Amino acid sequence: MRIALFTETFLPKVDGIVTRLKHTVEHLQKQGDEVLIFSPEGGLKEYKGARINGIKGIPLPLYPELKLAIPNPSINFALQRFKPDLIHVVNPAVLGVGGIYYAKKLNIPLVASYHTHLPQYLHHYNLGAFEGILWELLKLAHNQAQLNLCTSTAMVNELISHGIERVDLWQRGVDTDSFHPSLASSHMRNKLSQGHPEAPLLLYVGRVSAEKEIDKIKPVLESIPEARLAIVGNGPARPELETHFANTNTNFVGYLHGSELGAAYASADAFVFPSSTETLGLVLLEAMAAGCPVVAARRGGIPDIVTDGVNGYMFNPDEADGAIAATTRLLGDKEEREQLRQNARLEAEKWGWSCATAQLRNFYKEVVSKNNLSLVA
Q1: Residue 15 is part of a domain; what is its CATH number?
Q2: CB 355 within 8 A of CB 171
Q3: Is residue 374 very low, low, confident or very high in pLDDT (cuts 50, 70, 90)?
Q4: Cα 352 versus chain centre, distance
């Protein structure tokens, strides 16, 4: 198959969506498919054999790392040359709307996928009054597609409840080789803990932005005075959070990649994830693959991954002391913590990227087949 992939974010940007797309593109290409990527211009021309058609964009005011790429006529010419069997738009917002337009104009089967819970994000930027309008816009865009994919059962139900049609579940995936307990490193633990490797080490990995609710880790850290916190990643909220966490044992590490990121997960005692807006929470799966016990909010897509008391702990994000109690319990029982590590790894091993991409290819084939039948009819 020839697949044209429209995404609002791709390399060199680092986030869970890009991680999923990287592995998806790689596995599609390995299967003999051809992928053409339309994304905001980032300097790259290809990835794993897939050509990247970079579209000029402007930085998003609230999040300069993200660029808004405005569709232009070059997309039409590129699609005419590529002749895709299918268009897949990822989180259609600006560039993705161009993908929807050309799918309709050129009569190309269309798949859309939902990865970022934007209506909930609005509340973290004092824009909650626009949630209803945004849902209507999302419904208008997604209902153009023959199939809409979500990465958790909670999001499947959420989209259906807001009138989005033809919704199905795209199973989760994680790289169980890059994230593995064997990557635990005394050097990395020393680095993350700023020279205090004997102290309990809490870890956060992900975007450093308001909707991730990282500020809620501070009471957890204060309740365990001997603990250290390492925040891996970057984003627009970092200056504000550096002030918020001043005079605490917090290390803003910045981005880590490859084996260093794997070592960070494997070397920590607990992965603390307070976000209540996750469509899935890919970093949780990465932590679990590395054998790092997780403490996470019981909301969104997270209950699809974490089984409370079996492979991690969940807490009610509306309870002020929920994260404190869960983290204290995790750190307080070494034997139980080791069992959670083992169970977390076993859970992650069920979800390789090859299986997730095989499922996606079957979705693609079904959409293309139905479109061909309708043309014949």
Answers
A1: 3.40.50.2000
A2: yes
A3: low
A4: 15
Say yes or no: 298 and 268 in one domain: yes
Q: Domain residues for 267?
A: 181-348
Per the DSSP assignment, residues forming a β-bridge with 36 are 4, 51
- Indicate if 266 and 127 belong to the same structural domain: no
Question: Which of these, 97, 96, 114, 211, lies nearest to 159 by C-alpha position?
Answer: 114
- pLDDT band at 377, cuts 50/70/90? low
pTM score of the predicted model: 0.84
Give the percent of the chain with pLDDT over 90: 83
The reply to whether 157 and 189 lie within a common domain is no
Q: What SS3 class is residue 196?
A: coil
Structure tokens at 351: 């979800």
Q: What is the pLDDT of residue 62?
A: 67
Q: Which residues pair with 149 in a beta bridge?
A: 113, 168
Contact 221, 229 (CB under 8 A): yes
CB contact at 8 A, 89 and 100: yes
